[in-house]
Design goal:
The structure is a single chain. The protein is built from 14 helices and 16 strands. With 455 residues, the protein is an alpha/beta fold. It has three domains: 164 residues, 3-Layer(aba) Sandwich (Rossmann fold), CATH 3.40.50.720; 183 residues, Dihydrodipicolinate Reductase, domain 2 (2-Layer Sandwich), CATH 3.30.360; 34 residues, no CATH class. The protein has an eight-stranded mixed β-sheet with strand order 15-14-13-7-12-11-10-16. Helix 8 crosses helix 10.
Length: 455
Amino acid sequence: MSQSRGYTRREFIGQLAATGVGAGVVAATGGLTAGTFAAPMVVRSRAPGEKLNVAVIGVNNRGAANLAGVASENIVALCDVDEQWSAKTREAYPKAGFFTDYRRLFDAMHQKIDAVVISTPDHHHALPAAIALSLRKHVYCEKPLTQTVQEARLLRRLAAANKCVTQMGTQIHAGENYRRVVEIIRSGLLGPIQRVHVWNSSKPVGGRKVAGPPTAKFNLDLWLGPNEHAFFEVVMNPSGWKFPWPHFHWRWWWEFGGGTLADLGCHYLDLPFWALDLTAPERVSAWGKKTYEGDNTVPDLMKVDYHFPARGDRGPVHLTWYHGVAGPDLDGKETYPGFPAAVMFVGTKGQLIADYGKFRILPEEFAQSVQLPPKTIPPSVGHHREWLEAIRNNTQPLCHFDYAAVLTEAVLLGNVAYRAGREIRWDAARGTTGDTQADAYLGRTYRKGWEPPRG
């Protein structure tokens, strides 16, 4: 299902000029053909039974799960740099066009696409999302929304300017447990909450850079994409994640990802952001260290302190993130059985600990004396279906980019503070820390031909 109204190249550039993205789209796509600029510029609602034409960028591992989530629609295009790994998926969707370069996908099929699903490594999230949004295509993008703070802010602006329906892939948001915790916190059962602890026992995997030809059997130039860093071969330390380099393990290297905080922060900070209506932090400080053997340097032990401002009649919130430990204590002394990764809300009356699938109210005497509030948040129809139905109804799902970009920005500011080696003060309105050294970690440099549009 595609739009009926097309625009000439001049009209399209004129439309994009209003948001400052026209020239950037051309550069980012390596020079789209004139046909690209006949892209639909009117986002309309869909009939309830009408299928969407969806392009899926990144079709393996997490991408395979996201593809399954939208399989009820017309899958018209697939894109993945690893053709061999993608062979079975291509067989399952023989009518879908297949590409190894998403720039060529947009060039060839922009008029046939209504929506795009992005499940690439983090360093590729922003560019295809920005191109799609500039072409007024609806976007579902995996967490974290982007690799950098500046990219998250860009996607938020583009999504709003082009009135696109968006969703970040924080699938736990659709679970019943998160909904129940939000209801309890918002009911005031625990009393005012100004302290939150979030922890995760997960740790990065070390690896050793080695000389010699790459072992990957796909186009590494396309895999690098916008990344300015040269590709390097790595032998990873043994772990439970059995993926050949660079698949999956890219996330443990600053060149391509953001370590454990970027990998899992959006899933876990999502709960306090939702329950407490948090916005941008005012101050962020971080401490961490590397204890594993390897040439990568993302910390396996890390603590990040976020200070959020008051919201209305609710006071400020101090939230602390810990990873590499099974509790809110980098020394590993404080733990809660059954919760090696969790969120703890500390209220004036009691506490609540929650993970993806369960919660516990503490202390026990308090838990036994209170009555839980009634359910008020409707059950989810499913994280992917929320997005698809919102496209049809011209609404927004819960993890739309206006919410997800702020969440991602906060998560990534923890890495900014860590890499800068000092506390940062965040001016969300201006998008700066006021510190030149820290601001250098807010964005990145792009390879020529891979620059994102400006929003």
